[in-house]
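[Meeting: bench + compute handoff]

Bench side (C.D.) handed over the final construct sequence. Compute side (W.E.) agreed to return the predicted structure before the next meeting so the bench team could plan truncations. Sequence as handed over:
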Amino acid sequence: MEKTIFQKIIDREMPAQIVFEDDLCIALRDVCPQAPVHCLVVPKKHIARISKADTTDANLLGHLLLIAKKVAYLEGIEDSGFRVIINCGPDGGETVPHLHIHVLGGRSLQWPPG
């Protein structure tokens, strides 16, 4: 299987604006931001999408959400509000087959999203 763009970033084969990293994940700025703050939290373990995660991934999934909160804090949007999104599959807007969490904020976000 060919590496996803996220795996290439994790392996330092492609550049990215990294805002946070630990042993389990990496957080980076989206190259096509949809809000003033648009970061992605990506697990280093390859999970194609949330529908492919299983019970053994429970701790990792919880960790990713806590890192999304930390990214919001680091980006200065924790108090003003932010949105956390996980796209799943083509109809869900997924464009990279590697689970990732979008953290968006820095402006008022509307609902429904689209």
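W.E. noted at the follow-up: The beta strands are 18-21, 25-29, 37-43, 82-85, 101-105. C.D. will use this when planning the next construct.
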